[in-house]
Inverse folding.
């Protein structure tokens, strides 16, 4: 994930012609989209192919950002609920919204809609000419941090059950 994050910043900062889109996960009709992050690809590249190339990473982030999706992403949910990756233009953010995002500590406050109409990824395959260095992905917020509370809680439970105490 770190490499693709670094690639995202390298592409967006060094290549003014790089293409950047928001990435979302939604039902096949584009209903109930949930934000995942931003995908970038080198100039002349196709964002759909960039998303397809990074699909495993993006779905891993989706599970970390939206834990309730895990059964659906792993195929363990009952019923027929399909989820698809989608992308759209990056939303234009006002100075006031940017300040709110900084205060909230995340780039996508809950309930914020996509930056434009969603294009469903579908069955796009990455071309052999597009490599990992040509694309990047940055989640809206770290999927690892999203799980930090449960990790800390688990560590506290282990510590209590082992009889150890931080106070000495």
């Amino acid at each position: 994930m770190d490499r693709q994050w670094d690639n995202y910043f390298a592409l967006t900062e060094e290549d003014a012609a790089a293409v950047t889109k928001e990435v979302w996960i939604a039902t096949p009709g584009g209903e109930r989209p949930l934000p995942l992050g931003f995908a970038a690809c080198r100039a002349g590249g196709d964002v759909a192919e960039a998303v397809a190339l990074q699909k495993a990473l993006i779905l891993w982030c989706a599970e970390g950002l939206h834990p309730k999706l895990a059964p659906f992403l792993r195929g363990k949910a009952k019923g027929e609920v399909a989820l698809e990756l989608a992308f759209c233009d990056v939303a234009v953010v006002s100075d006031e919204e940017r300040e709110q995002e900084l205060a909230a500590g995340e780039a996508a406050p809950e309930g914020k809609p996509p930056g434009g109409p969603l294009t469903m990824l579908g069955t796009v395959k990455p071309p052999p000419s597009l490599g990992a260095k040509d694309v990047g992905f940055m989640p809206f917020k770290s999927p690892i941090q999203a799980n930090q509370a449960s990790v800390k809680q688990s560590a506290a439970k282990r510590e209590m059950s082992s009889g150890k105490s931080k106070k000495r």
User: Anything to note?
Assistant: The longest strand covers residues 19-26. Helices lie at 2-14, 47-53, 55-65, 70-73, 95-104, 143-146, 148-161. The first helix runs from residue 2 to 14. Residues 2-143 form one domain.
